[in-house]
Protein: Glycosyl transferase family 9 (Putative heptosyltransferase)
Amino acid sequence: MKVAGERAYVKLKLGKIDEGAALEKLIYSRKHFKHSRELDGQDRETFGRIFREKILEPDESVEAKRIFMLFHGGLGDAIEHVRHAENLVTEGAAVVCVDPPLPLVELLRNSRLPLTLMRSTAENFTWADSLALGNILSLRYYSSAAVRAGYLKPVQTKMRSFSISKPKRKRKIGIVWRSSNSSHATCRHEPFRSMELTDLLPLFTQHRTQFYSLQFGKLTTDERKLISQYKIYDTSSYIHSLSDLANVMRDLDLVISIDSAPAHLAGALNVPVWNVLCRVADWRWGGQRYPGTPLYPSMRLFRQSGLGEWAPVVAEMASHINDIEY
Structure:
């Protein structure tokens, strides 16, 4: 099955969606399912049996069923996958339950998505009629029309510890240039998808633009020097959760991000976002000729033509900065 998984990934990367999807669905079918990262640290025998009994098959009806959706991948994947709650309900599901990663809990509780938050326990899995993996739901609904824009837009705005003022006659742009993952072992797109802050220097000379660092994690000494030199506002001390980040993003005219959770979050909020993709980007973003994605109507894709070659990508973005309204 591991070999089948690699074959599926290659076919999806080559744009052979139907062939890749068929292999992925086979791997996660009741017949072939063996184990999953969702079971790490838990009773594999008990949970494995429940999974094999209840994994939602590709063409299985969800009419009047209690569906427990499980996330497969990182935070960005989870942000994308929760959109399928609406697809499942439209298809007739009685209830859709999730046990989200902690950073997503506040956002989901404050969204309009038809979701019930519930712990991933053997008892709750047994109560559910079917268990659905988010990555397989993405394949199930790949050809469907995109769900409404801004599906994670908060219902109520929380009290903010920080809000972005509106500098006169300046566009406000947030930037994310690297992910917290650092190796291929933690993410197969690393270290290729991250860039150095210095790669973005051509953007910082643009007139009538105020940049805001949305970068998670500790900044390096060199990054701090550049942030100070180009008067980039560092928001890190005010962002303690994805909910805080969402509030900051909604005050911006544009978010520029590598292919990471912040790009997905901006898209899910329907905030204008430029997703900067490395040459080995995920298959979900389509082929080189696609400038946009049906996943997020507010997202524009900027792609490397050669692995590691960020300069042409940044130059292309710089040529379009003046198109951003403020």
Summary: The domain at 171-323 is CATH 3.40.50.2000 (Rossmann fold). The chain has a mean pLDDT of 84.
